[in-house]
Amino acid sequence: MGLLPGQIAVIAFGALAVSAEFHNGFLRVSLAAVPRRGRWFAAKAVAVGVPSLVTGLLTAACSLAAARASMGGAADTLTTGQQTRAVVGGGVYLALMALLAAGLAALLRSGVGALSILVPFVLVVSFVVGDAAGKVTDFLPDKAGQVVLHQTWEGTLGPWTGLAVTAGWAAAALAAGAWRVRRRDA
Predict the structure, then answer these.
(1) What distance in Å separates the CA atoms of residue 170 and residue 114, rounded to the nearest whole number?
(2) What is the rounded end-to-end Cα distance, in angstroms, of the chain?
(3) How much of the chain is helix, strand and coil, in % rounded to 5?
(4) Among 51, 70, 101, 179, which is most buried by a count of CB atoms within 10 Å?
């Protein structure tokens, strides 16, 4: 559960890292240095994804250590595989959420717009609609990706298939963002 607040931070990072280019003509400067928009957007995605992954791995490892300390003897039931899955999966999950936000910010050309959609979506919609909508919410990007953080799960998706669903959402957002960047004026 220690990673859940961190997802808001990586969403903000992903959205703001991309949307900052759309203010005051900064995109023109960036495109003067890297005229190929697809290459520029791919580099921006790497600049968002890699630090988010590294930070996510460190955060997941620290969260696991804190959880183990607070669980006492109950922590001994966690296998090495479960702990590794939680740390690696947690890092990948946070990176995917940052990339989802980056793609959405590029699509909307607005960090505020991306944050206005994703933050309430992650904090409210999945939980409020989750119980009422049934299995459909298992395929939302946050719910699907968070399965990798659980010791046991009872849904349609397993830990790695859940991350694959989140990766699909991130890839779709990045593709839509790349399309928008190529089609719009700087």
Answers:
(1) 13
(2) 40
(3) 85, 0, 15
(4) 101
Strands (E), the chain: none
Quick: pLDDT tens for 146-163. 888 887 777 788 889 999
**Spatial distance between the Cα atoms of 40 and 17, rounded to a whole number of angstroms:** 13
* pTM, to two decimals: 0.89
Contact 11, 98 (CB under 8 A): yes
The dihedral over CA atoms of 4, 170, 13, 36, expressed in degrees to the nearest 10, equals: 170
Count how many residues are written for the chain.
186
Rg (CA), the chain: 18
Contact 178, 41 (CB under 8 A): yes
Among the listed residues 26, 18, 12, 105, the one whose alpha carbon sits nearest the alpha carbon of residue 55: 12
Nearest to 92 by CA among 174, 160, 24: 160
